[in-house]
Design a protein that fits this description.
Layout: H1 21-25, H2 43-46, H3 52-56, E1 59-66, E2 74-80, E3 93-101, E4 110-118, H4 120-123, E5 129-135, E6 153-154, E7 177-184, E8 191-195, E9 200-204, E10 218-226, E11 253-261, E12 267-269, E13 273-277, E14 284-290, E15 294-300
């Protein structure tokens, strides 16, 4: 959206979305402003457990993830962009890549995240916006969205974190997508984030992290919704397009061309992924493969419906 009026940054400067008093006041507290609440999903432990923890903290996911333990140095995907409806101001819907390392059941999980998000509480509207996130202590105290705390270092004078993405996909009409890549600089160890084709946005310095100072051990791609259970019922906040994956192209949201970065700083297609959905009656995921899209999946759902009361 920012590009439409032809404005450019002065040389040597970068784009920063302005935070207002109203932005801060919409948060539960100053401490909670620009932070995710603890919402860790360990897919490896969820294969046999119930989903009580995933649902109980209000965060619901439909994700694909790398199934075998391995050293990973980044990830990439092309993501379909929508503007799903959000029922409550404090709820959100996002679609992102997670690059992870550390312990899921402790306080040292390191996570780097990037994608698109609709969050009325954070942005004051219901537009789909480009975002980043990081934490080095399982979302407890450090880390934040975008540039709202010290951490991510922006280098791009063209791409604004927190800026609205336009146009977005429409049901049974034109489809629009973004490409996100996260990779580790093999020389300095910083984690870079890129948008589209060859557009580095900035980096997370290596010193922010403990486990990710070396490499990642798990990558996740998919959607997340915060369900606050308004009136004791499941939220009607949508994930992805707000439609189930069975509806397919033009109706359901998708991730395509899933790739990871190896120790040689090379991209390779992901072939063996596993999927996880906390409650398939509310949000679901279906993966497949073809020559054009590589490994891909459709995901999402409407939330509250007769099968998801």
């Amino acid at each position: 959206m920012w590009h439409r009026n032809g404005t450019t940054c002065p040389k040597g400067t970068v784009l920063i979305r302005r935070s207002t008093t109203h932005d801060v006041l919409r948060a539960k507290s100053l401490f909670h402003f620009a932070k995710k609440q603890p919402n860790v999903v360990n897919p490896t432990s969820r294969q046999t457990d119930t989903f009580d923890v995933v649902i109980g903290d209000g965060h619901e996911h439909a994700i694909a993830y790398t199934g075998t333990p391995q050293d990973v140095y980044g990830a990439k995907a092309t993501i379909n962009v929508w503007d799903p409806s959000i029922q409550e101001v404090n709820e959100f819907s996002l679609s992102q890549i997670w690059v992870l390392s550390g312990s899921f059941d402790g306080s040292d999980l390191n996570s780097i995240e990037a994608g698109w998000q609709v969050s009325p509480e954070l942005y004051g509207d219901s537009r789909a916006r480009l975002f980043t996130y990081w934490t080095a202590d399982s979302y407890q105290s450090n880390g934040c969205y975008n540039l709202l705390c010290a951490g991510f270092v922006q280098t791009s004078s063209r791409i604004a974190l927190g800026a609205a993405i336009s146009p977005v996909s429409q049901y049974a009409a034109n489809q629009y997508e973004i490409t996100i890549i996260i990779w580790k600089d093999p020389k300095l160890g910083h984690w870079w984030m890129g948008y589209g084709d060859n557009n580095p946005v900035g980096y997370w310095p290596a010193e922010l992290f403990t486990h990710l100072a070396d490499c990642a051990t798990l990558v996740e791609w998919g959607g997340e919704v915060l369900n606050s259970m308004p009136d004791g019922k499941h939220t009607s906040t949508g994930m992805g397009s707000g439609h189930f994956p069975e509806e397919g192209f033009g109706k359901a949201s998708f991730f395509r061309n899933l790739e990871i970065v190896d120790a040689n700083n090379s991209l390779s297609s992901v072939h063996d992924i596993l999927t996880l959905a906390a409650n398939t009656n509310c949000y679901d995921i279906k993966n497949s493969y073809n020559n054009e899209w590589g490994t891909y999946f459709y995901y999402g759902g409407p939330g509250n419906n007769p099968q998801c009361p």
